[in-house]
Amino acid sequence: xxxxxxxxxxxxxxxxxxxxGLIEAISMTSDLxxxxxxxxxxxxxxxxxxxxxxxxxxSLGFIKKSIFKQVVEFIRYLYREKPKLVxxxxxxxxxxxxIGKVFYCxxxxxxxxxxNRVHIISGNRKAMxxxxxxxxxxxxxxxxxxxxxxxxxxxxxxxxxxxxxxNGLPKPLTTYEPKYEVGKDGPFKLIALGRIDxxxxxxxxxxxxxxxxxxxxxxxxNILGSxxxxxxxELKRLQTKLGISDCVTWSGRQPDIYKYLNKADLFIxxxxxxxxxxxxxxxxxxxxxxxxxxxxxxxxxxxxFYTGQNPTDVKEFSNDILGVLRNLxxxxxYAKSITDAAIEKFNPIRMQSEFATISLRLL
Length: 363
Fold this sequence. Notes:
Layout: E1 9-14, H1 21-27, E2 33-40, H2 45-53, E3 57-62, H3 67-81, E4 85-89, H4 91-103, E5 108-113, H5 118-121, H6 125-137, E6 141-143, H7 146-154, E7 162-164, E8 188-193, H8 202-214, E9 219-224, H9 229-241, E10 248-252, H10 257-261, E11 266-269, H11 278-286, E12 290-292, H12 297-302, H13 314-326, H14 328-337, H15 339-345, H16 348-362
């Protein structure tokens, strides 16, 4: 049912119209009116959500990338709708908004940075320049973690123009209650979640599994996620080379991750870089034991719960996993004990309120 909204309106510009729990939470505020603008028009999830909740939605209507055409269409949108405030989520919408600022200066543009050091690590000088330029020409920037803010400042952005708003997600509908006994139902069961992308460092994850397997630990790893098919093919070749083809399964993207989490003993996350990883937030709230990277935004998500480990040190990461598996009952008890605190830390109402506060301040 649609909520009664304030007359003050802000636009949240997002890349696509697929499932997006963050934008759903942000848009349900009663402090102001939130309209959604999508760059691409492929999925029906966001349109259906907006229709159900009385939220105005527009789409630039693209099905593939074309920077010139997309910028032109966005400028037309600006002159037609004359928005006062636009939050641009992720790099590409932020770039389009920064260009739009050159041609239409009446709108306040606020990029929401959902990436951290990816351009620095990959050595993409063009993208690094654009990161700095976007921050300088727009009014304010939202960083989704302290780590992202630190990276922005390192890149020469003004710290006074940056606010941190952590991602927020709804509480899982179920809690972690595995229905089998460790040691009586086969090998230890590990799970990983995330898109198939080099930032997730699946090479390191496979090396860790290889170390554990060849040291005599009986285990299985199930990886949920989709993405770069070329990279996936490389990973499968590495898996074969490491001799672990029989214990690693690639299950692709799954709509119900909790069904798989509930069948696992331990969640592992080996990312080289993150902004504010949703998969890590989901697992903390669910209550499954975690061994995770502490790089980038992983550190900020883990703070107060786990110390994490540098995933580039595969031996130490393997030792951390082994330590948990040797004391799995205690690890599961601890993981369950922190769920309420994790749910509070990543409360979507908190995120919604903080976006509304900044919106009202800028309008």
